[in-house]
Design brief:
CATH superfamily: protein yfey like domain
CATH topology: protein yfey like fold
CATH architecture: Sandwich
Radius of gyration: 19 Å
Strand order of the largest sheet: 3-4-5-6-10-9-8-7
Structural class: alpha+beta
Distance between the termini: 66 Å
Oligomer: single chain
Number of domains: 1
Number of helices: 4
């Protein structure tokens, strides 16, 4: 038998390849990529995507993704700049952190690369834990509660994830 035949037999014996689960990163989530226009997101998501009516000030729009409960998108000047995971989301961020996970998990996985700031609306120890990639200017922010649980995860452009009230 040839070497190629053995490789094929080994691959068949191993079973079908399983796709890696999708995770939220500073670049996007699956087919949804930071920098896309609403039209491109619609082309990728079809009926599962809708700009929220009345959620626009002309320069900034919020959107929901029906396919992914608990996910929100933010468009600034016609481009996707942030993807947020809120209560109800079962999606993990790049290193496996999900909404509801303990703050200690974020600190363990991201270490000294985190910038820690006080939460704008909750008392300490609630905080924002942010990791920005210097090379891309994108990052991920974890908003934690007074109970030290992740309440929200924002990923995308640094300026967009810094906003604490959607488009504000």
């Amino acid at each position: 038998m040839t070497k190629l035949a053995w490789i094929v037999i080994a691959a068949l014996a191993a079973g079908p390849a399983t796709a890696a689960p999708l995770v939220l990163t500073s670049d996007g989530y699956g087919p949804i990529r930071i920098g896309m226009t609403p039209a491109k997101v619609t082309a990728k998501m079809g009926a599962g995507f809708a700009l929220d009516p009345g959620a626009s000030d002309g320069a900034c729009q919020q959107a929901s993704v029906k396919r992914y409960p608990g996910m929100s998108l933010m468009f600034q000047s016609g481009r996707l700049t942030r993807i947020s995971l809120l209560t109800g989301s079962r999606i993990a961020a790049g290193r496996g952190v999900k909404v509801g996970d303990p703050e200690a998990k974020v600190r363990r996985l991201y270490g000294t690369g985190l910038k820690v700031e006080p939460h704008k609306y909750e008392a300490p120890p609630a905080a924002y834990l942010t990791a920005i990639e210097a090379r891309t200017g994108r990052g991920i922010k974890f908003s934690t509660s007074e109970k030290r649980k992740v309440e929200q995860i924002d990923a995308g452009e640094a300026g967009a994830i810094a906003l604490v009230e959607g488009c504000l």
